[in-house]
Design brief:
With 132 residues, this protein is of the alpha/beta class. Helix content is 23%, strand content 20%. The protein has a single domain, classed as Leucine Aminopeptidase, subunit E, domain 1 (3-Layer(aba) Sandwich), CATH 3.40.220.
């Protein structure tokens, strides 16, 4: 059975486009995984900011979130040398439900592991790491 190495994986968290990283998984990413303030999307340190909220903490649309998930998937596919620990992005401050967000990741590559709370909402993925 595969296991994820939480000490070397990339921590994928829901961010805002302003890159504030002040609470929840975003704060943990800033304090423990090298997420940089002001970087609202992409890889910094051992973290990947995936926007689910806009600039100035304004809501963004489902379609905008979906586009950011697609950007993440392209990046994750381009880096098969990395393992991604995906948290419940968009399900806190983003205001979306697990039932809506988790299926967006059905096309994610095999180097992605997901929060166990999404297990019942994903049909194609079998890699789950725990919960945050």
């Amino acid at each position: 059975m595969d296991t994820i190495d939480l000490d070397t994986s990339i921590f994928v968290f829901g961010s805002n486009l302003s890159g504030i990283h002040g609470a929840g998984a975003a704060r943990a990413a800033r304090l423990h995984y090298g997420a940089q303030l002001g970087v609202g999307e992409g890889l910094t340190g051992r973290s990947y900011a995936l926007p689910t909220v806009g600039y100035h903490i304004k809501p963004i649309t489902f379609d905008e979130v979906q586009n950011h998930v697609l950007n993440f998937n392209v990046f994750a596919r381009s880096r098969p040398d990395l393992t991604f620990q995906v948290t419940q992005v968009g399900c806190g401050l983003g205001g979306f439900s697990k039932q809506v967000i988790a299926p967006m990741f059905e096309m994610s590559p095999d180097n992605c592991w997901f929060d166990s709370q999404w297990k019942n909402f994903m049909r194609t993925h079998t890699k789950f790491w725990g919960t945050f």
